[in-house]
Structures are given as structure tokens and as C-alpha cells.
Amino acid sequence: MGRRRRRKVIKRVVRVLPKVFPCVLCGRRSVSVNIDKSRGIAIVVCSSCGARGEVEVKPYMSIVDAYGAWTDMVYSGKLNLGEVGGS
Ligand SMILES: [Zn+2]
Q: Are 47 and 62 in contact (CB under 8 A)?
């Protein structure tokens, strides 16, 4: 049995978290999420259509979770998208 030793190929899967997400409103991949941990919110901004929103985030939530929460808000109509700008 001259079995050749199979070299184990160790694939390093480096998961790079996406920094931009597809926008549910304009369809472009231009949504960025910034988590403000001190305030416990994430600021979601689409640089393409200007949609933005702030979602509440828990300390264990990542930007992906925050993005998901934002899309939920958009779909459920909780997000007031008519008022862009101003604070
Ligand atoms: Zn957009």
C-alpha cells in the first residue's frame, strides 16, 4: 500500500466583514453602518440616495445586525425617510 501522504491544505478563511451593504431603497451597494457604542445606536447612511437612519444596537450586535435592523425598519415603515438632514 503505497499510499501517498496527502498534504493537508489548510484553507484560511478570513472572513472580512462587509463595510457596505445593498440599499433596500435604491438598490445600490452604498449603505454604510457606523456603530456609536457610547450612545448604543448605529447610524446607517446610504451615500447613493441619501437614506439614513439610526437604529438601536445591543453591545453584542455587529454592523451586519445593525444593517438588518435598519432594513427591518425600512420595510415596516418605522423609519421616517422623508426627513433627511437636520438634527
Ligand atoms: Zn440608497
A: no
How many structural domains comprise the chain? 1
How far, in Å, is the centroid of ligand 1 from the Cα of 19?
A: 15
Residue 13 lies in a domain: no
* Residue 40: inside a domain: yes
3-state secondary structure of 60: coil
Confirm if 71 and 24 have CB atoms less than 8 A apart. yes
State which residues form the domain around 31: 20-76
Q: Report the separation in Å between the CA atom of 79 and the middle of ligand 1, taken as the mean of its atom positions.
A: 14
Tell me the pTM.
0.70
- Domain harbouring 46, CATH code: 2.20.25.190
4 CA distance to ligand 1 middle (Å): 55
In this prediction, residue 4 has a pLDDT band, given cuts at 50, 70 and 90, of confident
Q: What pLDDT is stored for residue 82 in this prediction?
A: 52
